[in-house]
Structures are given as structure tokens and as C-alpha cells.
Amino acid sequence: MSADSSATTASSATSKATSSSQRKFIKRPDDKAMKEEVEALKKEIKKLDLTNNELNAQIQKLQIDQKVMDERNKLQAELKSLISKQSSAKNERNNINDQIKSIDAQMKKKIAEIQQQTSKNNFKNVAEIDARIDSLDKAIDAGNLKLADERRYVKEMSALRKLRKDFGSIEKTQASIDQDKEKIAELKKKLSGTHNKEVQAQFEAIQKQLDEINESNKSIISKRNKIYDQRSEIKKQKDAKYDEIRKLRSDFDAKFENFKKQMEEERQKRDEEYKAQQAERKQAKLKQRAEQELADASIPAFTEEINSIHNLLSYFDPSYVKPATNKNASTTGSNGASIPSTTKNQARVIEFPEDLVVVKKEQDDFFTGTKKKGKGGKKQGGKKNFTVAPEIVVALSDLTIPFPLKEDDVPETIKTLKETLEALQQKQEEQTKINIERAKAKIAKFKEEDFEGDEDDDDDE
């Protein structure tokens, strides 16, 4: 882990610790006290129930003689029947009175209409109008009138005939008024029949008998009524206790609801803090990765290949001297940031088990040969066996350069290595710029994708 990464982790841990220290402690409401009060109230209710049972037992002892009770119940039933009849008669009377009031109101309205029409002239009925028309007609027929008077009489006769038509509607209204008067008379006659004096007399007689029975059992009834009152008082006390229990439970439920609300608010607050920490951590990792991508891209291109070629040249040509490199050029990117020279080739520290026995294998020198032995066991001079170390073969293969099959192929291999080295060095600066531009594009893509891919990797760590 890099220093920047460690700082980020430490900052995140500090933020979490600060958030945890500021977290509000929410105490769960204790229902123990509430339950104790409820149990105490239930015990009091049980005591009231016992008292109520005692009162019921006393009521059972204060019983009136059954024959008297039967007679009393019978009289009460008859009284209820009479009350029902009286109620029906009363409703009928009210209904008749309502009808009378309604008809009377309509009749008065019709009379007012007739009075309004007759007040405009001196005629009270059709007969008077007809008499006036006949009088005018006879005067005209006599021929003694002046022309102006005759015209005036004709005009008056025309007006009287029109008035006579209006008086025809008045006669119909009058006939309707007469019918209303007859209806009212019939209803009043019917109303007088609803007053049943016999029912009232029966009611009074039965009530008198009931009063006598109650008077004879007044002492018992008084005691029973007193006990009934005590029992009603006990019921009120029980209801009050039950109300207290409901209030205690309701108050606790309200406190518990408030507790749940505060817990939910605290949970939401923790979620928001966690999201903020995750966002901060994501931004830090994005910045770290962007810096790493840019740092890796700023390393001169083909550094690994060039170093490999230098090593191969030194291997094939022991006289080859690796040229000195500009440290600043190799460790400074295009943006001036310092780049470690071993970013991609950092040395790994390997821990071996304590009981490991290291066996050192001698390696044959390059270009070494073995002489064949003669019959006498003496070594005979001969051709050297040409061998190339496996790691050299791999290095050449990575550079796509054929490895020498014999000693005579070595100069050609050296030439190819130098040509490849020169080509890579010429292209190095251009390729480095391309790598930097690619890294910047990749960084922009990180920001666009909100660093989702790395979040998944973090979950796996």
C-alpha cells in the first residue's frame, strides 16, 4: 500500500471514529413501570368485582313475593300497551292538526287572491256585472242617446264582458274555498274522536294499582335501589380504572413510537454518513488510481524492452558497456511528477521457510565446451558445445528476435539487438506521449463511470 493510500485509509478511519463518537444514544422506553401500574390497577378492579358480587348476592336476598311480582309485571305490560295506544292517538291528532293547518293556509291564500281582484272595481259577483250590461244594452236600443254616449256605453259593455270572464275564475276559486271549509269541518270532527277518555281512565286505574304495590314493598324496593346505586358507583370506579390502564398503555405506545422514530432517524443519519464516507473514499481511490495510471504512463516507453536488450547485449558481448542514462529523464513524467524507476519492476522480498536447504547449482559459462575423453581416459580436444541459457531464450522470444543456434549466429543476434534498441529509442518519446494521452482518457472514463468497477474490487479485498 502506498503512502497516499495509507493516508486516505487513516482519514477514513478518523472520520468513522468521529461519526461514531457523535452518535446519539437513544434509550428504549422501559415498560416495567407501566406493567407494574397496570397490574396494580387490575388488582383493584378484582377487589371491586368481589364487592360487586356481594351486592348482587344481597339483591338476590331482597326479593319481592313472586305473586306480587307477577301481578306487578302484568300491570306494567298493560300500562305499556295503553301508553302505546295513547301515543298512536297523539300521533294521529298531530297528523290531523297538520292537515287542518295546511288546508287553512291554502284557503286563506285563495281568499286573498279574490279580494285582490274584486278591490279594483265595484262589482262583487257576475250577477251585478250582467245587470249592468243589460241596463246599458237597453239604453242603446232605445235610440235616445247621443252618438258620443252611445260609443261610451259600447266601450263600457266591452270592458264589462271582459271583466265577467275574470270573475268566472273567481267563482272557481270560491268553489275551491268552500270545499276547503268542508274538509276542515270533517277533520275537526275526526279530531274530536281521537280523544279516548276510556283509555285515559284505564291508564289512571292501572297506575294506581302499581302505586299501591310499590308502596307495600317500599322498604324492599328502597333497599334494592340503594344497592343498585352502590353497584352503579362500582361500575363507574371500574370504568375509571380501565381508562387509567388504557391511558398508561397509550402513553407507553406513544413513547415507543417516538423511540422507533428516533431510531429510524438515527439509522438514516448513519446511512447518510456511510454514503458520505463511501463517496469520500471513492474519490480518494479515484484520485490515487488516476495518479498511478498517469505515473505508469509517464515512464518512458519500452523501458523494460530496452533494459532487456542492454542485458542481452552484455550477455552476448562481455565487452559491451551499457550507456549511462539520464535519471531525471527516466524518472520524470511529462507533467513534471516524480516517477520511481522501478514502478513495474519492483523487487519482491520472498520469505523462505526456516527448514529450507538451499542447493546452489553451478551454471556453465557461456560458450563453454567439453572435450571428449579418449580410450585412456584422457580428454581429447574437440568442438565446443554451443548452449544458451533458458532465460536468454525467453528474453529473445519476448523481443521476437530469433536466438542463435550456433556460435557463428551470435554476431547477427547482437546486430539485431542493436537495431531493435535504436528503433525503440527513436520511438520512445512519441510512444510515451501516446501512453500519457491514453492514461488521461482512461482517467476521464473512470470519472464518467463513477469508479464502479473499483468498488466491486474493494468489496473483494
UniProtKB/TrEMBL annotation:
<feature type="compositionally biased region" description="Low complexity">
    <location>
        <begin position="1"/>
        <end position="21"/>
    </location>
</feature>
<feature type="region of interest" description="Disordered">
    <location>
        <begin position="1"/>
        <end position="35"/>
    </location>
</feature>
<dbReference type="InterPro" id="IPR039604">
    <property type="entry name" value="Bfr1"/>
</dbReference>
<dbReference type="GO" id="GO:0003729">
    <property type="term" value="F:mRNA binding"/>
</dbReference>
<dbReference type="GO" id="GO:0042175">
    <property type="term" value="C:nuclear outer membrane-endoplasmic reticulum membrane network"/>
</dbReference>
<feature type="region of interest" description="Disordered">
    <location>
        <begin position="263"/>
        <end position="287"/>
    </location>
</feature>
<feature type="coiled-coil region">
    <location>
        <begin position="414"/>
        <end position="449"/>
    </location>
</feature>
<dbReference type="GO" id="GO:1990904">
    <property type="term" value="C:ribonucleoprotein complex"/>
</dbReference>
<feature type="coiled-coil region">
    <location>
        <begin position="170"/>
        <end position="216"/>
    </location>
</feature>
<dbReference type="GO" id="GO:0008298">
    <property type="term" value="P:intracellular mRNA localization"/>
</dbReference>
<keyword id="KW-0175">Coiled coil</keyword>
<protein>
    <recommendedName>
        <fullName>Nuclear segregation protein BFR1</fullName>
    </recommendedName>
</protein>
<dbReference type="GO" id="GO:0005783">
    <property type="term" value="C:endoplasmic reticulum"/>
</dbReference>
